[in-house]
Amino acid sequence: MLRYVLEPGLAQRPSEQAVDSNSIHQQQKAAEDPEAILQALRATTIGAAEEVQTPFGLRRTVYADYTASGRASSIVEDFVRDKVLPRYGNTHTLATATARQTTYFRAEAREVIRHHLNATHEDAVIFAGNGSTGAAHLLVQTMQRAGFNVGASPGASASAGETVRDMYFREDRWGGGECTLCGVRVKSANIYQAHRHSEAHRAKLCANEQSSDAHSGRGDVPALRRRRVVVLADAVLHHSSSLPFRELVPQYPLTGVAAMSGFSGGSWRMSAASSNQSPAQDVPLAHASGVEVEVSTVPVDVTTGLLDECEFRQRLEALRSWTGTVSRTDVGGDAAGGVAQDCQLVVICILAAASNVTGLCADVPHLTGLARGIIPGAIVCWDFAASLGHQVCNLNPPGDAAAFVDAAFFSPHKLWGGPGSVGILAVKKRILCNAVPAVPGGGVVFYVSDAGHSYIQNSEEREEAGTPNIVGCIRAGLVFHTLDQLPAGLVASREGGMLERVLAAWGDHPRIDVLGPGLNSSSSVVSRTGVVSFMIRYGNAKPGLYLHYNYVVAVLNDLFGVQARGGCACAGPYAQWLLGISPELSIEMEHCLAQSAQEVLRPGFVRVGVHWAMSDQDVDVLIAAVRWVADNGWKLLAAYTFDRETGEWLHRMDVPERRRVWISNMHIATAAAAASAKETVAAAPIARFEAGLGIGHGAPSKALRGAEDLLLAAGAALKEAYSSAQVALSQSKWPVLHADYAHLLWFALPADVAFTLKSSQPDRPQLIPSGESVFASNQSARPEHSVLDAQKIQIRSSEDPGSAMHETTDEAWDQLQDMIPEAEEEEEDGTLHDHKAVSFSSCQLRPSIPKPLRGMVGKAIADFKMIEEGDRLLIGLSGGKDSLAVLHILLALRKSAPINFEIAAATVDPETPEFNPWPLVPYLEALGVKYHMLSKPIIEMAKTHMDPKRPSLCAFCSRMKRGMLYSCMRDNGYNVLVLGQHLDDFAESFFMSAIHNGLLRTMKANYWVQQEDVRVCRPLLYVRESHTATFAKENKLPVIADNCPACFAAPKERHKTKVLLSSLEFDYPALFSILLRTMRPLYALTTADRGNGVLALETEGGDGGSMDALRARRTQVSNGGTHGNEGRRRASPKMRDDADEDAAAELVLSACGPSAAGDTVCGMDSTPEESLLQDWVSSSKVVRQTKTNRLHEHLPPLDRGVGFMPGFMMGLAFSAAAVTTWHVVSTRRSMS
Hints:
Blueprint: H1 21-32, H2 34-42, E1 51-54, E2 57-60, E3 62-63, H3 74-84, H4 97-116, E4 123-127, H5 131-145, E5 169-171, E6 177-179, E7 184-186, H6 189-195, H7 199-216, E8 226-234, H8 239-246, E9 266-267, H9 284-289, E10 291-298, H10 309-320, E11 325-328, E12 339-352, H11 364-374, E13 379-383, E14 407-410, E15 424-428, E16 445-448, E17 453-455, H12 470-484, H13 490-506, E18 512-515, E19 531-536, H14 549-560, E20 562-563, E21 565-567, H15 572-578, H16 583-596, E22 605-609, H17 616-632, E23 640-642, E24 649-651, H18 668-683, H19 685-693, H20 707-719, H21 750-757, H22 810-819, H23 842-845, H24 851-864, E25 872-876, H25 881-896, E26 902-909, H26 920-927, E27 930-935, H27 938-945, H28 953-972, E28 976-978, H29 983-997, E29 1006-1008, E30 1015-1017, H30 1025-1034, H31 1053-1067, H32 1071-1078, H33 1080-1083, H34 1107-1117, H35 1125-1131, H36 1139-1142, H37 1168-1179, H38 1181-1194, H39 1207-1231
Parallel strand pairs: 3-20, 8-10, 8-12, 12-13, 13-14, 25-26, 25-28, 26-27, 28-30
Antiparallel strand pairs: 1-2, 4-15, 5-6, 6-7, 9-10, 11-12, 14-15, 16-17, 18-19, 19-22, 21-22, 23-24, 29-30
Helix pairs in contact: 1-2, 3-12, 4-12, 5-8, 10-11, 13-17, 14-17, 17-20, 25-30, 29-31, 29-39, 37-39
């Protein structure tokens, strides 16, 4: 969400965002060179040139641990320091300037994140504490609060007691919503609270409950129904996402057979009753709640290194056919038999979008659709922590409702500029059914008294109790906003090329075992991020032992300044699988660590990551450093020692505590003085003299830079490693290990290298004789080979099971190109498009159109002669539900119509981040409809070209869009523009014009524009918005979310009018049917309005409004033919931007806001009242024109920049409306 507040005169006064022409030129140059953008951002990385002192001298840091955490950016931190912190105030109020601005910052950050994830108003974006861990934990807590009645029906709260909240309130994107029970819109959640106590709502609620009870067969006493929760967990998952669900198992034991008992990787606990134990040993609260939980871990596919899709499918199908019968002993049964009871099944899938070990990326839409296709009600959750910032995270893929993600976990602190950010939980609001928030506290309550308390309805704010990490939330929004400004495909292209270089350099080294998929030409093609995990072999034998991962990390840091990470990367099961650890060996390893406290024996690997923020020099250093350690690193092993309890490795001469920076070193007494003296010292003559000599403050850095210099320094350090000034091998001693676990020793020890260097073959790695200076007991046998083997699990192609994982032929590296995301193809217009094959279902391409909907459109076309023989139609396709609906209806009508006409479509792209119409390109191609994409930076143009006296962004945007559509029509020979406004839009425009402009005016059904060469029609005149919404939803049309960027930030007048009409319709169900007849004289006009009369019924000159006369005129203009485009273009001047035309009813190109609630079907039959009203309008045309001219002579000019008209005009407008309405009512009564 970006800022679209264009105040009057804003374009005329300078703003703080104003830039000079030189800056604009630099921005344009950077846009032409994407690498220049990355280079500029890279220069703002805080710590990019940081130097650290190591045992071998000063080294510049090469940060390669972006997978664990990103690095701070001065762009983000400067904004926080200069803009956020000076205006900082606690949220939860708008009464003060600081609190208001801070609340605005945080709200905008939420919308920026929502846009980046392609989330809609149906998704809750919640700030959730500590990364993905906080997000996953929050989701589990909300489910527990609701008794796992996730996705509950709106009426579930009546039977679920206090666990499920009122789900009849459906929020919209502006903070208001709709009561789905009553079908009425409300402006805010507070108004809905009041609406809940209305008699009409209570009556419908009682009727709905009685209907539900009768349908379910429940008596007066509802039976307790048990709920079985089955969690299918991806083995690739990070611990943060899986452990919150694992911890549910002991809390909710089973009372019957496990649903996943026939599959491996199951985890559950039987209750005391089902195991014939004492009921006192059970968990009373969990047992009484009726919830049972089991977790099943889906194994890894050896051909892809990711989730085994076949196994995943089998488990889903087994759950679909599960009978769901459990044994209940708490309602009169005994422990042996019990009472058979049906059990509601809740399936939750927890999957990893990318591995934080191998970087392999899963196909999120495919697996989500697979789960939902087998079990439609499955809750599919994804952990995006490892893929965020590297791959596209699309929570709602256009046109594929089955692929919509139910919940997603994000860790913005891993992004560039993200340190200090909070975690993000994005979850469908329908899943947040809990009556009590996950964390009750301040800021989420509606009212608290001694008698009780209640909570607010907003799905996002109610889960953010207390004072949040406000700055962390804002920083997260800034980071996502930074990502949005990078060119599409730039990150994937940059990181893909870096990853290719790394894998090509390390993959053929005999001592480097890279964890992950094979690169042979027949392997499966999967995308991946820049994560690379590896192990380095000692070289004593084949396969032999490894070098400890923490030792490798220490050497990379000390010699090269490379910041890497060692361990299991918090992905234990997946890491163990990659390292070839069997379940039995895993149990033995766990026993060893628990009994001996020898943390150094914990298995693991080294992990690095390439990132777009790294320079080419950084990548060169990383590649060279790892290869040097693989070749020579074992020789330095004797110069290091380790800690058995922590697993830490250090150079024997190193004391890191000496370089430690202490928080307590900050003293307020000297801080101010030091800050003021800094400039003085730097400017002193002695300081300048020292800087010239290369010493003192301001002296150039002496840290080595570049791979070549660092390799030379590493070689020199190796030669001096065991000199008298360093470490003497003769006096070396190292910790000894527990003898009982000697067989688990998988790495070489410093004693091995010391023995080798003193032997007759110092260039060949050897092992010290068994027991000597290694174990506490000399009787222990020393293994020659590691119990770990990174090559044991070889990820191979199913077509070539014998191909080795590390095969490095030229063809293998060529195959790598397919695994790296390529830069998107650039079209001739310079716009990047993604031409990946997109498939659409049959219902999306050939939707089923209800007969009433088809009939209403057909009747409107016939009543107003919207389409005639030979017409060439251009549909203004915004991507919303209404324009897609009219497209499909016209395509269907064309097949059976007695006339011939052509259909094409065009979309105007205002080039705003919120609006992405490009998914429509493959969709229109699949439909076989000619498509025009018209792009222009309308919002940016509005900042400088919009009239400050009429600061209506909607009007400016509409005018620009119409002009672009008209130009497209004239250039391509189209003569009819089809727009998608429906009856709700007509009524809203009617009310808005009367209230704000003092005019009786609305959109027109079928009319000619001022130049008389283009006709505009609206076939959805008789159709309600709820009908198009239902049609789009049932057929899963690829609706583009939030397609009006001007209305994205806050509710506009149209939304307010929509709420008003909805509340009126609640009291008067026939409201829209009556309004349709009332507006007939207005929407039946056939030319664009040019006058300023109160009734706005006059047309351009005499009988110019006659459709037959206008058609004859069009025939003359076009030189005899609808397709006479050249003649039309010669005779018709280019459309001018007429200000009076903008005041007409065509205020928007497509409707804004969510679906209407009402389902009232308007009667479309012609009535005598309509005919009499039309006669009255025609007979009074001359009188009306005369009165209008007199009014213009005596009234002062009206300022259209003002929201309301003068009182006299307002009263006159309402008087005219009253007269019109009275005439219709009296005529109806007289005829009845």
